[in-house]
Amino acid sequence: MLDQAQRILKDVFGYDAFRGDQSAIVEQVAEGGDALVLMPTGGGKSLCYQVPALLRDGLAVIVSPLIALMDDQVATLDELGVAAVALNSTLDASAQRDIAFRIRRGEIKMLYLAPERLVQPRMLDFLRDLNIALFAIDEAHCVSQWGHDFRPEYLQLGQLAELFPSVPRVALTATADRRTREEIVQRLQLSNAKRFLSSFDRPNIFYRILPKDQPRKQLLAFLGQRKGDAGIVYCLSRRKVEEVAAFLSEQGFPALPYHAGLSNELRAHNQRRFLNEEGLIMVATIAFGMGIDKPNVRFVAHMDLPKSLEAYYQETGRAGRDGLPADAWMVYGLQDVIFLKQMLANSEGDDRHKRVEQHKLDAMLALCEETRCRRQALLAYFDEDMPQPCGHCDNCIDGVQSWDATEPARQALSTIYRSGQRYGVGHLVDILLGRDNEKIRAAGHQHLAVFGIGKAMNEADWRTLFRQLVARGLADVDLEGFGGLRLTDSCRPLLRGEVTLALRRDLKPQAAKASASAASQLVRGEERELWEALRTLRRKLAEEHSVPPYVIFPDATLLEMLRSQPRDLSEMAQVSGVGARKLERYGQAFLEVLQGGGNAERASAPTEANDLRHELVSLARAGMTPMQISTQLQCSERNVYALLAEAIAAQQLTLDQALDLPEELLEEIQEAFLDGEGELPPVAAIAELFQGRVPEAALHCVRAALQAEFEV
Ligand code: ADP
Ligand code: ZN
After folding, report:
1. 587 lines ligand 1 (CB under 6 A)
2. Which atom of ligand 1 is nearest to the CA of 22?
3. What is the CATH architecture of 402-506?
4. Which residues are registered as beta bridge partners of 197?
5. Fold of the CATH domain 522-595
6. Ligand 1 atom 5 nearest Cα
7. What digits encode the pLDDT tens for the residues 271-314?
8. Which cofactors does this protein require (predicted)?
9. pTM for the full model?
10. Residue partners of 21: CB distance under 8 A and separation at least 6
């Protein structure tokens, strides 16, 4: 049996070996047993039912809650040469009849269905006349009434056990917690199912959490090392989604907004673009997520704090499904904490419910202020023990300094107390630093004993300290009021001198920035060109076949081609992810890019670029603006600026020909560059000054002009 499974894995899917529990699950289901599979996102759940489906006689029926996912799976199987269809409401009656006909004739191997479809009496009758290979119930946690993905129709899937007693059933989910697991077993009648619980670790994800300090600038610095990567940026509010998306686009990072306030059409359109195009950034509220199966999401960035570790794990989990390096990046600050606490206080539900939610938020905050390995802490929350620090998170890589904050913490807490427990952080810091301003005088706070006792620390350090006091539950936010801080009971021992307090020291932004994660090293400099050529071919084929690029080949497969450089079709067949059908369809085309054709293409690339630049110079000289040129040449604006900068450096263009900036502004930019001594600073160093006024890419042109001037 396993031999055969192995052969199918290689021939159809192109993979050499099963991962983790896959082979045991395949064996269990192929031999007719039931299975409950808990595996993290990207763990490879699909193969757990697709391989047994091919090993067994008859039709495999797969229940999935989302049409987009089904279509994606069917397209993928289609590319592999497996006969699969999805029955959904978008099909008209005659198309449905046709599918039914083909199923009866045994021409279809896998049928994807929404749960409400499956449980219709007519559908069940139809299936009972057939030979069914297995039932796979994907996203099985949808049966849980406690989860946020609850689907009432899932409750009816329990009847499959009685209606089809001899057909194996496999339920799959990426939701880890115990209660959900038991609910699945009970409601889907899987008490005899063998359970397969994988580790929920996502080893390829690098976790980083930073204190929020000019978040957009921090985001740009993060993205700067990930140009051309697809990713998701989560924000809490719709407005912020819009703003950040616009800001990123302006800065030369192609970004699309996604939130519940957009029309259905626009949402669907943006989602489709995100799936089908490469290197797009989706800026989204959490409305975006479920059903995003794009395997090569290279990063998930949080501009705001999620409200629980469950949410954080799920959202960050959308990165790196393909197993290649990916980043989970987040900035958080005191405002986030205040905001989430306020939401919680104003939410509906009884006290017990609120206490549970409060608990979850506390766990999230604890991860932010964590001094040990983030991954260990995250997994511990899900009851998984990881004996060693992971070596692949910010805390492991950068190290964490903690410091004895006992005395300053006491000062901060007494300042809260003595000023009446109703002032926000700004005012409290003013008291500590002894700032003599109107608000202080109006309240008479210059007379407090704590006035000016905190001068040994600066404002930023005090703010950090207050954030940490709130995160640790030593101080609380007055939610009815205006974000004033209050003491909590748990701070008494500290105030009485019975305990000490160690806190994590915030890293200086520069230090934090310096350590790029592995993701940016996915493709090394000298490989870039060939990598791009492979991607271009993939994009072209994807368009021809009307499927997303990753359905042709996942990134991991392209990367392996790049590294192993197969010379002929038989070597190509060795590449992981190249099955028989894909070898036949695409093998030759990719070989050509890798070898002869590739060389030609690589050789021609610079000429193409030269041609483009030549044309661009003419257009610029003719007085076109960068925007107009970008439309004319169908080239991104960012690219246009980059080419303009090159042309300026080569003295083919003057700055005035290239840009049309107001005189004053231009002078201001030039001064900013010339401000220091010695070398011209890099664009990034001054970009912030002109944020929102000049596209960052345009600054490169000014810099190039200055440089050209100096070199003469
Ligand atoms: P899940 O549904 O658990 O999130 P998928 O089934 O979509 O995960 O698999 C994630 C990725 O891993 C896919 O690109 C899949 O082709 C790949 N994959 C799964 N199993 C293997 C394997 N045994 N060898 C290589 N790649 C695999
Ligand atoms: Zn770690």
Report:
1. no
2. 23
3. Orthogonal Bundle (1.10)
4. 38
5. DNA polymerase; domain 1 (1.10.150)
6. 44
7. 989 988 889 999 999 877 766 778 899 999 999 999 899 889 98
8. Mg(2+); Zn(2+)
9. 0.73
10. 37, 39, 48, 196, 198
